Amino acid sequence: MNVLRRNKVNKLIKLIATAILEEVDEEICAINKKKLWVRKWIDRRDKLGATNCLLKELALEDPKEYFDSLRMSESCVKFLLTKIHTRIQRKDTLLRSAIPAITKLQAVLYFLATGCSLRTLTHIFRLGKSTISEFIIEVCEAIYESLREFIKIPTTTDWKIIENGFQKQWNFPGCCGAIDGKHVVIKAPPESGSLYYNYKETNSVVLMAVVDYKYCFSYIDVGCNGRVSDGGVFRNCSLYQELENGVLPEGHVLVGDNAFPLKEYLLKPFPGNRLTLQQKIFNYRLSRARRTVENAFGILAARFRVFEKPIPYSPEKVVKIVKTCCALHNWLRQTKLQNRQYEYTVDTENFEEGAIVPGNWRNEPQSLGMQRLPISLSNRSSQRSTDRREAYANYFVGSGSVPWQTRMIH
Q1: Which residues, in sequence order, are CB contacts of 42 under 8 Å at separation 6+?
Q2: Who has the most CB within 10 Å: 47, 258, 299, 350?
Q3: Could you write out the three-class secondary structure of the chain?
Q4: What does the alpha-carbon distance between residue 228 and residue 367 come to, in Å, rounded to a whole number?
């Protein structure tokens, strides 16, 4: 009896195993049929996509063209990949192989560097358009998180280092940075009405930034909608509240242009054309220190041509793209991995001729996707603010004068 039962059990096991194998075969056939729906030219990504073909050739044969394509050297790309690999690499599935992390990173860097369309990225990297759209923000978030140490609010020690830098390099004591802002043009979100509609008759979010003496962003605030009126742009940014609450060391200042109000912690030029010699010298000395932020924004827009035209994403996603570009800008200006011979140069001064020599970033086409803030119409300023500006003006024609300043204002 036991032998008969054992034989019946074995037959039953064989029947179950056969049924399972048949189901597995059917699933494999279904998977293979699904794979036939993938466009054949995309399926050849591993052999003919930019990662394993064009970019590999450029890295070996034309490093300058590789640099221009991704705005960084190959060593920088490899280092960045090690920082974000685990965050962006997915596992293979039965349906398809996961897109390599290097391909995702290169596609996003190419997008930021050129501002090209998703269709162009599809053709170059042989990826689906919807797939690219999904991972662009994912990779941007990973890059920003991995580089946050390069763009954080300065500590008390950091402020002191920055102040020393402005004193030694730009002859402007007590300065902790140059402030400026830009309207980053976006495509109007659905059903947003005039919420993001600005004075230039475009839709935008505002990027407000403080830049240190080395042309790096030490503080950024991005996301304020572009509809805010001229005098309200600054007041509606979180940076304004930080400054009002005393984020700067006591007695220190930022320098800005006429888009900003005169504050005890924020100096701006004397307005008008009929200025005294002392006022002209003050304006020159202030503009000399403020040139750091002008060059920083200029290099940012020249390096990342995604700012060349309206960014076709929601405001929330645009904020993430902008933050990523700022973090990359800071890292690339500081890392020793970057190839300096291909980097953009900044404005310099020819003291003998009394002229400013433009940096080569000015040779790039003007970015229509990044617009200036309007001039502030507010003439109200406290007496203490006015006194502080007058004190600096007196200092610059007295003990704080430099030999070439009179020559430069003429």
Answers
A1: 122, 126, 127, 128
A2: 299
A3: CHHHHHHHHHHHHHHHHHHHHHHHHHHHHHHHHHHCCCCHHHHCHHHHCCCCCHHHHHHHHCHHHHHHHHCCCHHHHHHHHHHHHHHHCCCCCCCCCCCCHHHHHHHHHHHHHHCCCHHHHHHHHCCCHHHHHHHHHHHHHHHHHHCHHHCCCCCHHHHHHHHHHHHHHHCCCCEEEEEEEEEEEECCCCCCCCCCECCCCCEEEEEEEEECCCCCEEEEEEEEECCCCCCHHHHCCHHHHHHHCCCCCCCCEEECCCCCCCECCEECCCCCCCCCHHHHHHHHHHHHHHHHHHHHHHHHHHHCHHHHCCECCCHHHHHHHHHHHHHHHHHHHHCCCCCHHHCCCCCEEECCCCEEECCHHHHCCCCCCEEECCCCCCCCCCHHHHHHHHHHHHHHCCCCCCCCHHHHHC
A4: 22
Entry field: residues in the chain: 410
pLDDT at 200 over 90: no
The partner residues of 266 in beta bridges, in order of sequence, read: 254, 263
Buried b (16+ CB within 10 A) or exposed e, 74-99: bebbeebbeebbeebeeeeeeeeeeb
**Dist. CA 195–CA 204, nearest whole Å:** 9
358 close to 297: Cβ distance less than 8 angstroms = no
Residue 254's beta-bridge partner residues?
266
The token pair that represents 161 in the structure block:
């280092």
Does 9 score more than 70 pLDDT?
no
Query: Rounded CA gap, 88 and 139, in Å?
Result: 6
Phi/psi at 338 (nearest 5 deg)? -70, 140
**103 exposed, middle or buried (CB, 10 Å; 0-12, 13-18, 19+)?**
buried
pLDDT-derived band at 403 (thresholds 50, 70, 90) equals very high
Structure-block tokens of residue 299: 């290099």
Q: What is the chain's mean pLDDT, rounded?
A: 89
